[in-house]
Amino acid sequence: MTTDQKPPSNTPDPALISGGMGVRISWWVMSRIVSMMGGLGVVSGTGLEIVYPRLLQDGDPGGNVRRAFTELARRQPALSADIWEIFNSYYIEGGRAPGTPYKSVPPCRLTRVENFKPGPDSFWELPKEMQVLVMAANFAEVWLAKEGHDKPVGINFLRKVERPLPWALYGAMLAGAAYVLVGAGSPDELPSMIEKLSRHEPTEMSFKVYGTRSDSGSFYATVRPEELKISGEALPVPKFLAIVSSFGLAQALAADPATRPYGFVVEGSEAGGHSVAPSKMRFAPDGKPLLVYTEQDKADIGAIAKLGLPFWLAGSYSGRGSLAAARAAGASGIQFGTLAALSGQSGMTPELRSKVVKMLAAGELRVENTMVSPTGFPFKVAQVPGTISEEAVFQARPRRCDIGLLQVNYLTPDGKLGYRCPAEPVDRFVAKGGRVQNTVGRGCLCNALLSAAGCPQVCPGGYVEPPIVTLGENLESAKELLAQLPPGQETYTIGKALNFLRGGPPKTA
């Protein structure tokens, strides 16, 4: 069977897609509203296996986690005991006491599956507890976004957060995700994975291991539904959208039926979060990279349109008239992120969002392209006091890597998998074979993004992890909406943002 993507239904594609931002900035509440209003609400799948245990330790406000886990246990009875064991191991009635650290979640570390397939390749999986936790958290986020309506909901993953990704994808599909969006790396394996998981068949995704020889075979993270005793009818095949920033990658993916997505999100360098480096790197006298993008870094939209697949434009396509301009270029619509992140229904903590929108309204907010990300990719950071964008806050934070979503894999001298991150203590990173120059200026996005979403870790001694805010470079649309607010209203709703993008009345709040 070809893995060429087919639509799961006759439902037309939405013109407006909300961005799958950060760690739970694009959460189910906002995404549900976007979908119910005729757009495609996209939840972020990043770090949900950390977020959901923290929600449980905060008392599960509203009972949302319990309700979603109950539904998954009903649909997959073989997982029920594991689901409730996880629930009960983290749940605290009434929530943890103020100032109490969150109980740690085991890191997503892989163990080898013995005697799975012959040959030089090796196959690995998460411990069963983590497989179930990752699936349950992603199921819950999608299911809650879908609850009470029949409109499509999507989920966004980062290819670079690779160890939990296969199980996160499966959990989202079990909940009925209609679209899957993947960026931050080539997502060429996703179409095949989606097809196999829709039939509850084993599937695998390659992961990179530094320090291996060319003749040592490839490494794969492997989902085995039969071992988990997951059953049921075939799942609807979600539409897979590959997030690309160049015609070259889009062309390569489209050329092969095995890698061909349903469509693309074409992301410009102005978009928030991670972006590819400029094609020609420049450096300041002190050696720091100057992240300057030119015309040659822009995707060839006309060439992408000729590939014949649906596509959406992202990054600086959130202005009034942007949707019409995108359609005139052959696009199905646009994806918007910053406008959603600053809306009143985003997952950003109200206190942090209040500070950001006040700075924006006053003309004081700047977004800089930095190299703070451990991935080595440029990362957009809003310059907000009290966040790690502030040099004093960044320097005061003790270096630690206690979550590890962006750790890379390496082979230890005894042939086992090891994990390292440029944001961990420098001596540890170097001892694991890392280069000291890769640690300069690198910060812990895992902890900072969790803090921005309202679940910061409290460390020994009472130190609370500071947040980070990532936004796109184009702030004008959000500033325009803020200028229209009546006295006493701090920010606009996500509904007003959708109305704005559709060209609604210009003077509504």
Walk me through what this model shows.
The chain is of the alpha/beta class and about 500 residues long. Helices cover about 30% and strands about 15% of the residues. The chain starts with 15 loop residues before the first strand and ends in an 8-residue tail after the last helix.
Summarize the biggest pleated sheet: 8 strands, parallel
Unreliable residue runs: 1-7
* Oligomer category: single chain
End-to-end distance: 51 Å
Q: Tell me what portion of residues adopts beta-strand conformation.
A: 5-15%
Number of DSSP E strands: 19
Helix content: 25-40%
Mean pLDDT level: 91
Total of DSSP H or I helical runs spanning 4+ residues = 18
Spatial order of the strands forming the largest sheet: 1-15-14-11-10-6-5-2
**Strand pairing plus helix content: what structural class?**
alpha/beta
**What is Rg?**
22 Å
**Dominant shape:** globular
Topology:
Layout: E1 16-18, H1 28-36, E2 41-44, H2 48-57, H3 64-75, H4 80-90, E3 111-112, E4 122-125, H5 128-146, E5 153-158, H6 165-174, E6 179-183, H7 190-198, E7 203-206, E8 209-210, E9 219-223, H8 225-228, E10 239-244, H9 247-255, E11 263-267, E12 282-283, E13 289-290, H10 301-305, E14 311-314, H11 322-328, E15 333-336, H12 338-341, H13 350-361, E16 367-370, E17 379-382, H14 391-396, E18 408-411, E19 417-420, H15 426-431, H16 445-452, H17 476-483, H18 494-501
Parallel strand pairs: 1-15, 2-5, 4-9, 5-6, 6-10, 8-18, 10-11, 11-14, 14-15
Antiparallel strand pairs: 3-4, 7-9, 12-13, 16-17, 18-19
